[in-house]
Amino acid sequence: MNNTCPTCGAVYNVAAKDIGRRIRCKKCATGLVVTDAGLEIDDPAVPPVPSRGSAPPPPPPTFQDLDDEPPRRGGRDRDRDRPARSGGLAIDPLKIFKDFGGVPTLLFGFGAFLVIVFLFMPIIGNAAISRAEGARERLDLEWSIQLRKLQKDKKSPEDIEAAREKFFKDNDRDRVEDGVSFERVSNKRARWFEMYGMMFGFLFLMAGSLGYMMPEQTTVRRVLGTVVLGAQVLIIFLIFAIGGGGCGGGGGGPGAAIKGRGE
User: Fold this and answer.
1) Chunked in runs of 10, what are the mean pLDDT values of the chain (263 residues)?
2) Does some domain include residue 79?
3) Residue 132 lies in a domain
4) What residues make up the domain containing 21?
5) Which of 49, 56, 149, 239 is the most buried (most CB within 10 A)?
6) Distances (CA, A) of 220 to 137, 210, 213
7) Is 150 among the domain residues?
């Protein structure tokens, strides 16, 4: 479909829906009409003079303006002019971070993580000792079963002793005993590291609790910070009290509490 003015070549946006519309060119003021072939010059014949008593002539055709064809733009320009979707989900990391409590939440969460980890490390260490002791007890149980079988067969004491030595040698009884001793020593040595980790966990947890008690925080966070901070102070007081009432006593201090925990 021709979309240019036949007189001056001006370009217009015309489509099939515009067929029959009359326009006037903005550049040369030529009257145009939209046909099946496109834009053509609209030059209607001069109407005859009406006789007396005849119907009045039809009004002259009205012309409508069509905008010039806009320049083609790239995809980025179209996306820039496109209105934002009201139902879209705009992700703002800073707002999300603030809604979750900000820096106090990071401190509180990291402190809670350290406390949980180093609280369970002694429990895991004791479980390792129990596992090593269980391997030794299982070896003794297997020998007891074999001993009852030898006694049932009425073996001599010399044969039983020889079978015992062979059994424990084949099953490496010394390695099993060394495993129990190693786990006990390792668990005692880990107390130093566990106490330092617990201390740093309490420090981060206290800092997060103090941040939660600020006025800009929600009521739930302020209550949580107050409760956790009070519980930490109580736990520290109990540690010093169990240790002997402070650092000045001859047998007191946190060291005594740690020693008592490791025994």
Assistant:
1) 81 81 83 83 58 56 50 53 52 83 91 93 93 92 92 89 90 89 92 92 93 89 92 88 53 43 43
2) no
3) yes
4) 1-43
5) 239
6) 51, 14, 10
7) yes
